[in-house]
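Hi there. Long-time user, first ticket. I'm pasting a complex I've been working with (about 462 residues overall). I'd like to know whether the download I got is complete or cut off, because the file seemed smaller than I expected. Thanks.
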Amino acid sequence: MSIHSFYENAPKHLVAVDCIIFGFEDGKLKLLIMKRKVDPMAGAWSLVGGFVQDNESTDEAAARVLKQTTGMDHIYMDQLHTYGDVNRDTGARVISVTYYALIRIKEHDRILANDHGAHWLSLHQIPPLIFDHSVMLQHALDKLRDKAHTYPVGFELLPEKFTLPQLRNLYEEIYQRELDKRNFRKKILAMNILEKLDEKDKSSSKKGAHLYKFDEAKYEQLMKTGFGFTM
Amino acid sequence: MSIHSFYENAPKHLVAVDCIIFGFEDGKLKLLIMKRKVDPMAGAWSLVGGFVQDNESTDEAAARVLKQTTGMDHIYMDQLHTYGDVNRDTGARVISVTYYALIRIKEHDRILANDHGAHWLSLHQIPPLIFDHSVMLQHALDKLRDKAHTYPVGFELLPEKFTLPQLRNLYEEIYQRELDKRNFRKKILAMNILEKLDEKDKSSSKKGAHLYKFDEAKYEQLMKTGFGFTM
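Hi, the file is complete. Here it is re-exported in full:
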């Protein structure tokens, strides 16, 4: 077969990126979603996404979508999965690559998000999403939880200095269940990735709670090896 | 924007699947690769792959490619990653979704594979592969090793009954390094997923080595929870 017919005879497809953008605010894990503007299903809720253009990689498309909706740049996005069922989008065949990002809600551009019809909703307020977007969200949550078993995750969501109750709150939001205070404290300190600061946060009690920050070097090391089983 | 212009104005792309097919034979972890038939780079080695057609999902395309090359059906394939750089294929822009499979080489159709120009090569014999296929392979290996830290993997590659030396050999091939015999034995038995059989394999010594098989129920449970850190 000639090079011409090899590439020319193959069918082409619309390819989209859909972004699962998590943030953490007021003790709640939140997701950025938007009202879809076009039919089919105009007005329904969807993940933030867009079509991959000719001059950009799929990674670049995801970064562009994030930037257009939040104003945020240079955010690490992890590719999750590609959804390739023939009829997943009822408007046309679209193959969709999902990405997820963890961002600090405070740092995003609220006006831009608003202009795009994008809203932060806490996890238990998420309405049904269009097409397979609810499945995409579930996969992203599973991945986040799965990763939290093996790696310390979610620190991208916290301020630089944080208390142990704040950190526990974040993990409770990721797992969507209460965690035992003492057990959590014991396990997280045993990881040996936190640096106790000589400062206290007195916003929630008179006595105050110690502030911590990450020991980046130890954190990096742990991110490489995980907590898992090693032969 | 109308539904028409929304979908019609978006660019379309060639989408391929590339399959990283691992097998285990004669104590070696092997990869199925083939000689490319078309330009650019006709005659160079590549992963086994093909274009996604209009009437099939990406998963179905991967299963079709596997079936066409090995004759094998109903093999579990795990999607790995989507490679979406604009210039990754020098013939045209092609977005590629990778899948990997672990199969028993004995069970594949050698004549079919031969007809397709496909060959099993052990890992340290793999020549440079076209485009980004060497990167795809490396990612698949990293994933396999990563998974082996947290889950018992690779049992799809072994016969139903196997000895501990065979299992250690498989892990040595996955990690590409020697493992301490006693330590491996201790760790693998501690997982509590093997069932010791009342049979011995006497092919490699007079005394023989005990045969084991998997306890599927315990294995399933472990696959769900992993060995990792749990809050």
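A couple of notes from our side: Chain A has two domains: 3-149, 152-225. The domain at 152-225 of chain A is CATH 1.10.10.10 (Arc Repressor Mutant, subunit A).
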